[in-house]
Amino acid sequence: MSEILGELSGLLWENLLYLLLGGGLFFAIFSRFTSFRYFGHGLRLLIDKRNESDAPGEISHFRALCSALSGTVGMGNVAGVAVALTQGGPGAIFWMWICALLGMATKFYTCSLAVMYRGKDEKGVEQGGPMYFISEGLGRRWKPLAFFFSACGMFGCLPLLQSNQLTQIFRFMFFEPNNWFVGSETVVQTGNFLFGLVVAFFVGLVVVGGITRIGAVAARLVPGMILLYGGTSLVILFIYADRIVPALGLILTDAFSGRAVAGGGGGHGHCNRGSQSRILQRSRDGHRGHGSWRC
C-alpha cells in the first residue's frame, strides 16, 4: 500500500510541480511583485495596534500571523527541511528558496481573497479560507469544489508528521534512557500510544477554543520559538562560517547539474527534478491555502 501511495504521490507532484512554480511566478509578475513592494506596510500593520480597533475578524493581525507560523516554524522549517534535504540532496535547498519567494505571491492572493470573501458559520462567527472564497466569490454552483477542497485539506493538515516526530524525540530523550516502554514491539507501541493520548489531550484543550484560543496560545509560544530557531541558526552559522561559501556552491551546483546525490545514508540518488518535487511537499503551505484560514 505504501508503495502504491508513493508512486501516486510522485506522479501527481511531478505534474503539479510546474503548475505550482509557474502559478507563483505568474502571480508575482501579474501583481507587479506586490507582496515584496508592500512588505514594509505589512510590518507596520503588525506593529501598529491602532489599525486593529475597527478591523473585522476574530483575532488580531499579530495573532493571525503567529497562528500561521505555528505550523511552519519547527516541524516545517526544521524536521520537514531535514527530510527534504535527505531525500532530495543539497539542491533541494535552492528550490526551497524559489518556492518561498514564489509562494509569497501565491499566499498574497489566497489571503486577499480570504479577506474579501469571508463567510459566517451558523453562530454568526466570521470564517475564512479557500472553501469560503470559492463558494462566496465564484457562486453557489462552485460549492462542490469548496467541499472537495475541504475534504482534501482535512487530510493535508493532519499533524501526522508532527506527532510522529514528537513521539520519536520524546522516546529517544526520555523513554529509552530511563528504560521505559522498551523491549517488545507491543510495549514500544503502548508507550507511543499513551504519549499520543497526552499530546492529544493538550492539543484538544487549545483546539476546542477555536481560532481565538489558538491565536492566543500561538501569540505566546511562537515568538519564543522564532527567537530560539533564529538564534540557534545564527550560532551554527557562526561556528561553521568557513563552510558557508562552499555549501552555497554545492547547493547551486547540485540544483542544476541533475547528477545523483547520496540520500539519507543510503545509495539512492535524486536528480534536481526529484528534489524540486520533494521540497514542494515539505513547503507546500503557501499552495494549500492554509494561511488564508487565519485571515
Would you mind describing this structure in some detail?
The chain has 295 residues and is mostly helical. The protein has one domain (2-53, 63-294). It contains 14 helices and two strands. It has a two-stranded antiparallel sheet. The longest helix is centred in the C-terminal third of the chain and has 30 residues, at 210-239.
Outline:
The chain is mostly helical.
SSE inventory with pairings:
Blueprint: H1 2-30, H2 34-37, H3 39-47, H4 61-70, H5 75-88, H6 91-116, E1 119-120, E2 126-127, H7 130-138, H8 143-156, H9 160-175, H10 185-207, H11 210-239, H12 244-257, H13 272-282, H14 285-288
Antiparallel strand pairs: 1-2
Helix pairs in contact: 1-6, 1-13, 4-11, 5-13, 6-7, 6-12, 6-13, 7-8, 9-10
Radius of gyration: 21 Å
Estimate the strand proportion. under 5%
Shape: globular
**In the residues, how many domains can be counted?**
1
The total strand number stands at 2
Instruction: Give the helix proportion (percent range).
Output: over 70%
State the end-to-end distance.
37 Å
- What are the segments in which pLDDT stays under 50 over at least 5 consecutive residues? 259-276
Number of helices: 14
What structural class do you assign from the helix and strand content? mainly alpha
**Largest sheet features:** 2 strands, antiparallel
- Strand adjacency order, main sheet: 1-2
Order of helices and strands: HHHHHHEEHHHHHHHH
Q: What does the average pLDDT come to? A: 76
Oligomer: single chain
